[in-house]
Amino acid sequence: MELNVFTSTSDNIKRKSLKFGNQKINLHENLKPFEPHASNPTPRSMDICFVSMKSIDQWMKIFKNSQIQIEEGPVIKTGANGPIKSIYIRDPDNNLIEISNEI
User: Fold this and answer.
1) pTM across the whole model
2) What are the domain boundaries of the chain?
3) 76: pLDDT confidence band, cut at 50, 70 and 90?
């Protein structure tokens, strides 16, 4: 696992993540988490992103048919290996989940 410092493509702010292989855990600052974020961010919280082989359009249809609200997106973000197209939903515990496609 390595510390990765990157500039976000969505707001040009320097951020940090932990990268291991093709995976990345974004680290949020305690007092000013970036958007979107957990409903109640706490110290040591994180968000999780799943890179999918299904297209974002397919996921949007699945979520619409399942009456799952898309919190944000589609948007272009910085993934572990480069640009990604993402949508965000909440799990039953209200945690933020990102689903993305590599661009």
Assistant:
1) 0.67
2) 2-102
3) very high
List beta partners, residue 82: 79
Q: Which of 29, 72, 98, 102 is catalytic?
A: 98
pLDDT tens column, 7-18: 887 778 888 888
CATH class of the domain whose range is 2-102:
alpha beta
C-alpha angle 77-23-101 in degrees, rounded to nearest 5? 45
> With 0-12 CB in 10 A as exposed, 13-18 as middle and 19+ as buried, what is 80?
buried
**Residue 71 designated active-site:** no
In tens, the pLDDT along 15-67 reads 888 887 777 777 777 666 666 666 666 666 566 888 999 999 999 999 999 99
